[in-house]
Design goal:
Length: about 750
């Protein structure tokens, strides 16, 4: 097995100049996720400082400072790791998809595969849980979708395995051992709760009675044993049918379980995936669903679970702790650490890997983005540094479809379940200004603020009912205009306090001349028959009466405040999702694999081509104060023409110099190099071939502040082979190898 190290990729700067067809603009990556495309599945800590997380793309990360910094390795980029177990600081195990089980004897620096093919019949089985009591004796729990759940044990360190349990036709999900022979296992329903007293014989426990609702399913997805007798398990919950999250308790080592039904005020309706107790009375559980993350805490041995604030919108999959220090992991590469048992949380992921659907610059230096799973990103220095958090209020942080800031501090973020949040401090905190709903069909798609008091939000009350919300007092109260269109409204904009337009699905548009008091259907002119029902997604005013609207392979222009729309011939060959203008003449429209530019107020458009950066779906575009476009792609990546410098990626100042292994590695054509500085220093980063010849200089004498930094190296023009990259910072010098594979 070949080991491929990985480094955190937060802020990326391409070293090759990529010249585009429109205006010879140079595009580069201005922001990328810390762990792009990664969902973390499991976490384990041996102490308050030393722990590991695992997840998709074979990622394994290790921390020795309580989660402040993480380093790790990728074992299998095509596989997902689902479980991690370390029995000492050096000896550990990870399990994942396709019957994959690995072991390490050096704390995770290198991994060796333990072959299970001869012992686990299911080719696609996932190793969902692993536990070793010593170097010889261990257990694994595997599952194949909802077909077979199996538990096997070994007494020779994994050379051979004996199957102890097979649960045909049912998914097994989690397992926990409180000692060398005492364990419990949970699965697809309350009818698949098993326990063992000798490590080899597994017995099914009686299914506990679930009260308070009629459950259509009862998955139990996480289990934790405080000692050999006392344990807790958590699982299924759903808004559909008002089925509360499930919490179970055992006091006899899993031989029987009781349902911990909650009072109405404490009920959650989300899937719970993990549970941790620091002692017999005090526990935490986490999970998530479509409306955001969920976390709850108990101080009375599980009898009462109280939802707590964990400002996050992703699904939380893993939880583990030592005393009051707790680490939680989830999708989009999220890692949170609490040192006070859940009272406060610190996001340790530099940049969350969630797609941004809303993007805007407001003021001279401030920029904002919001999107999937409630992610919110902000820059206060023209994009040189971005900070990730979540737009979160009333324990809600669902998907956000749009945002709008009227200045550097006041803005709206709107999205699923009729959510509308407002901030008056630049996103540091948020207040809910429109009541949410549990109906999945009620969604907000667009927002626009004329000033701090006058604002509009559009969306749908149902698929055939486009709605407009209006406030004149900054969101304290709203008037509602329903059925403005027979389709969902996707975009809204105003040219003045009275003249505005909305656009939506099925090529619908309406306009107002009295500040949203009344809305009239717009007229379309010269639209080809093939575009007659094209969905419209965004609208922007260039002047008080001139506006541009874009949608599925269509661009329209109005010169009378949105009353009439004229078809504009353009190279738009795909669905255009985003639209932004620098001034009355220059603007951009973006969509899947395409960026378009106009310099004449939208009369003509030219394709901005960059095969390396604009091949995926582009969701939004914003123009900064100096006229540079910023385009959001998948997993939170931003590309731009702005001139940037690498910046500090976190608030934690490292104790020493360090140069991490580049990621990905091997790579083609670009890779990220991360380094940390304990104090400010001038930095050189030089790339050499194996003959010692200098082939590239990504950084030359640039001053960097103390902290963690990431630089993107683009190797287009170089041949396949092994290269050296050398970092010099003051008196510190370190060299590593990287592999370019064409």
């Amino acid at each position: 097995m070949k080991r491929i190290p990985i480094a955190v990729s937060v802020f990326a700067i391409l070293t090759a100049l990529l010249v585009t067809a429109a205006g010879a603009q140079t595009w580069k990556v201005g922001l990328t996720a810390s762990y792009p495309g990664i969902s973390f599945s499991d976490v384990q800590f041996l102490s308050a400082t030393t722990g590991w997380v695992v997840g998709s793309k074979g990622i394994v990360l290790k921390t020795t400072d309580g989660g402040a910094t993480w380093n790790g390795a990728t074992n299998d980029t095509l596989g997902t790791l689902s479980s991690v177990h370390f029995r000492s600081a050096t000896d550990g195990y990870i399990g994942g998809s396709s019957r994959k089980l690995y072991t390490t004897t050096d704390g995770g620096s290198s991994w060796t595969r333990i072959l299970l093919n001869a012992f686990v019949a299911d080719t696609g089985a996932v190793v969902r849980s692993v536990y070793f009591s010593d170097a010889s004796k261990g257990w694994i729990l595997t599952t194949l979708s909802s077909t077979n759940g199996r538990i096997l044990h070994t007494t020779d360190g994994g050379t051979t395995w004996t199957q102890d349990l097979v649960v045909a036709g049912s998914n097994m999900i989690d397992m926990y051992f409180s000692g060398p022979d005492r364990g419990v296992a949970v699965g697809k329903s309350t009818g698949t709760l098993y326990y063992t007293k000798n490590g080899t014989t597994w017995t099914v426990a009686p299914a506990p009675t679930l009260t308070g609702a009629t459950y259509t399913r009862s998955d139990i997805r996480g289990v934790y044993m405080v000692d050999s007798l006392l344990g807790y398990a958590v699982g299924w919950g759903s808004l559909v049918g008002a089925q509360p999250s499930i919490q179970l308790k055992t006091t006899n080592g899993g031989e029987s379980w009781s349902h911990l039904a909650q009072l109405e005020a404490n009920k959650m309706f989300d899937n719970l995936y993990g549970v941790y107790f620091k002692n017999a009375a005090n526990g935490l559980c986490v999970g998530g669903a479509s409306r955001g993350s969920i976390a709850a805490r108990t101080a009375d041995s599980g009898m009462t679970w109280t939802p707590i604030d964990l400002p996050c919108g992703v699904t939380l999959n893993g939880i583990h702790g030592k005393g009051d220090t707790v680490t939680v992991t989830g999708s989009s590469g999220v890692i949170f650490v609490s040192t006070d048992f859940g009272t406060s949380w610190d996001l340790k992921t530099g940049m969350v890997g969630s797609t941004l659907y809303g993007l805007q610059f407001a003021g001279a230096t401030n920029g904002y983005g919001a999107g999937f799973d409630g992610v919110f990103v902000k820059t206060t220095n023209s994009g040189n540094a971005w900070k990730a958090s979540f737009a979160y209020a009333n324990r809600l942080s669902p998907n956000f479809n749009d945002l709008y800031f009227v200045n550097g501090t006041t803005g709206l973020a709107v999205g699923s379940y009729r959510i509308a949040l407002k901030t008056t401090n630049g996103g540091t905190s948020w207040t809910q200004v429109i009541a949410d709903t549990t109906a999945a069909t009620v969604t907000h798609y667009g927002a626009f603020m004329v000033d701090e008091n006058l604002a509009f939000v559009v969306g749908q009350l149902s698929s055939s009912n486009g709605v407009v919300y209006k406030t004149t007092n900054g969101g304290t109260s709203w008037t509602i205009k329903s059925a403005v269109a027979a389709k969902a409204l996707r975009g809204v904009a105003f040219g003045s306090s009275t003249v505005g337009a909305v656009v939506g699905a099925g090529r619908v548009a309406a306009y107002t001349t009295d500040g949203g008091g009344t809305w009239s259907a717009a007229t379309f002119n010269n639209v080809p028959a093939a575009r007659s029902v094209s969905n419209l997604r965004k609208v922007r005013f260039l002047t008080a009466t001139t506006a541009i609207a874009v949608g599925d392979t269509i661009i329209l222009k109005s010169t009378d405040g949105g009353a009439n729309w004229n078809y504009v011939t353009s190279p738009a060959a795909i669905a255009l999702n985003g639209l932004s203008f620098q001034n009355a003449t220059t603007g951009y429209a973006v969509g899947k694999g395409q960026v378009l530019k106009t310099t004449d107020g939208g009369d003509t458009w030219t394709a901005v081509t960059d095969a390396a950066l604009h091949t995926d779906t582009q969701n939004a575009v914003a123009v900064d104060a100096t006229g540079n476009p910023w385009v959001s792609g998948t997993s939170g990546q931003l590309t731009t023409t702005a001139t940037l410098s690498a910046v500090e990626t976190g608030s934690v100042i490292p104790a020493r110099f360090a140069l991490d292994q580049n990621y990905p590695n091997p790579f083609n054509p670009s890779t990220s190099v991360r380094f940390t500085l304990p104090h400010a220093a001038k930095v050189d980063l030089v790339i050499y071939n194996m003959l010692g010849q200098r082939v590239a200089v990504p950084i030359s004498g640039t001053m960097f502040e103390a902290g963690s930094h990431t630089v993107r190296f683009d190797a287009r023009g170089l041949a396949t082979g092994i290269y050296l990259y050398r970092l010099t910072a003051g008196t510190y010098t370190e060299t590593r190898k990287m592999a370019l594979v064409r």
